[in-house]
Structures are given as structure tokens and as C-alpha cells.
Inverse folding.
């Protein structure tokens, strides 16, 4: 009886005090109810790219931003690049949807001020179409909060590359076990909200990385990051998993933000 009573108390203390956790770090994060970070992907209709970019710029206006905020969507930014002969657009945002993370694409589409116009200007990714959505909610395979400071970033970027098919498992495993030294250096160099997304485009497994900078001296911070010996060992592993897009010098290439022209940035590798 005494042993049974003790086990009952322990069950209340260790099980009842907190929700049971899953084996997957990703699922554990979703179950925490914390802010999730979303990358949506769609193709621009050929010949109407500028119309789509103009429509995306309008999302930052006060009335439209309020509509999105009521749907739990904030910090919206959008980027584009020609990949495989088509113009692809990525919309990034922070989502306060709690544990219902998979509702992010639907919440975005329903909150758009002119949803019919957006649909007319975009071609859905085939995988999104199978899910009954228009924008594809890409796989979110890595997130690092980095420098935890309030307020908007000094700037943000989205970069793109591809994964070698034979290295996919290795790359995914690395990003389920990101080294502490890599996280530490991201913080020291004043970066925040690093998210890595994956999506297939034709035969390619394409990787998109979003990052915010919150420091005051990007050149000095970047030099410190590039010279860090742990980063260098990490990059030797990750670089071997990646294959740049055609014509790109280096692993990654900058995407163009819809609110301006990409004109440089840090040499981010992940």
C-alpha cells in the first residue's frame, strides 16, 4: 500500500505538473503554444509579378496589418526570386496560432484584404493544392531565437539554396541537434529569429533561410562570426549537404524583398 501511494504522488508531481512531451523537438515546440514562424510559398502568375509585389506591399498598411493581426499574424515580410524559370514568392510571418500551427496558411489566406486578387496573381504549389490551400506552408526544420531583444529588426533577409538528395537525412539531423556554439555565435553577432524552411520545386529540394539583424555594426559582427572556429567546423558539414542554384557563386543567394532591392548582406551559411 505504501509503495502504491508513493507512486501515485510521483505520478501527480511528474506527469500532472506538465503536459507529456513528444520525442520530436519540433512537436514539443508546437505543443508549447509559443509563437511559430511561418514560410508560405507560391508562384507568381507569369506577366503579373509586379501586380503581386504591389499587393504584398499593401499588407503593411495600417488597415491591412490590423486584419492580419486579428488572425494572429504579425511581422510580415515577403521575398521573391526566379527559380527554375518561374518567379517564386515567400511570405514570412510570426504566427500566434498556439498549438494550431497548421492553420497558418488558411489564416493568412482568409485574412487577406483581397483574397480573390491574391489567388488570381498566384499559382498554388502542387503540395498546397493537395491540402486544399493556395499557399504552401513549408516545412519548418530549424528555429533559433538568437538575440532576444524587443522591437523591430534593423533589417531582415531571406536566402535560398538547394539540398543534395543524398544528404537530406544528414542535414535534417544536424538541424535537430544544432551545436550550442553555433547558437552562441548567432547571439553574439546580434542575429535573431533564424528560421529554415524546405519545399520541393520540381526535382529540387529547395531551402529558404530567414534571419533578422538587431545590432549596430554588421561588418564587425559578420567578421566575428566568420572567424569563429565552431562555425567553421559546422559549415564544413552543412556546405557538403547543399548545392547552390545555377549561376550562384557560393552556397546561398539573396532573395529580393518586395519592398526594395536586395543589395548585399551578410555571408550567412547554415
Amino acid at each position: 500500500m505504501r509503495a502504491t501511494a508513493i507512486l501515485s504522488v510521483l505520478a501527480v508531481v511528474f506527469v500532472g505538473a506538465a503536459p507529456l512531451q513528444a520525442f520530436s523537438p519540433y512537436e514539443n515546440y508546437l505543443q508549447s503554444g509559443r509563437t511559430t514562424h511561418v514560410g508560405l510559398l507560391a508562384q507568381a502568375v507569369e506577366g503579373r509579378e509586379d501586380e503581386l509585389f504591389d499587393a504584398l506591399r499593401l499588407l503593411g498598411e495600417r488597415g491591412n496589418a490590423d486584419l492580419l493581426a486579428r488572425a494572429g499574424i504579425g511581422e510580415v515580410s515577403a521575398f521573391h526570386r526566379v527559380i527554375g524559370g518561374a518567379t517564386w514568392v515567400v511570405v514570412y510571418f510570426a504566427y500566434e496560432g498556439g498549438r494550431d500551427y497548421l492553420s497558418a496558411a488558411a489564416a493568412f489566406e482568409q485574412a487577406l484584404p483581397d483574397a480573390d486578387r491574391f489567388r488570381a496573381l498566384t499559382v498554388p504549389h502542387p503540395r498546397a493544392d493537395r491540402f486544399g490551400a493556395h499557399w504552401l506552408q513549408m516545412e519548418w526544420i530549424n528555429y533559433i531565437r538568437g538575440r532576444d531583444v524587443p522591437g523591430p529588426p534593423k533589417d531582415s533577409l531571406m536566402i535560398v539554396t538547394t539540398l543534395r538528395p543524398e544528404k537530406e537525412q544528414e542535414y535534417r539531423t544536424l538541424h535537430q541537434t544544432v551545436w550550442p556554439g553555433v547558437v552562441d555565435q548567432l547571439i553574439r553577432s546580434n542575429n535573431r529569429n533564424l528560421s529554415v524552411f524546405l519545399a520541393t520545386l520540381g526535382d529540387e529540394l529547395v531551402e529558404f533561410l530567414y534571419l533578422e539583424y538587431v545590432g549596430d555594426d554588421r561588418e564587425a559582427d559578420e567578421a566575428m562570426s566568420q572567424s569563429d572556429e565552431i562555425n567553421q567546423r559546422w559549415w564544413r558539414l552543412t556546405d557538403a549537404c547543399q548545392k547552390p542554384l545555377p549561376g550562384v557563386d557560393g552556397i546561398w543567394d539573396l532573395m529580393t524583398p518586395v519592398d526594395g532591392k536586395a543589395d548585399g548582406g551578410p555571408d550567412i551559411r547554415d
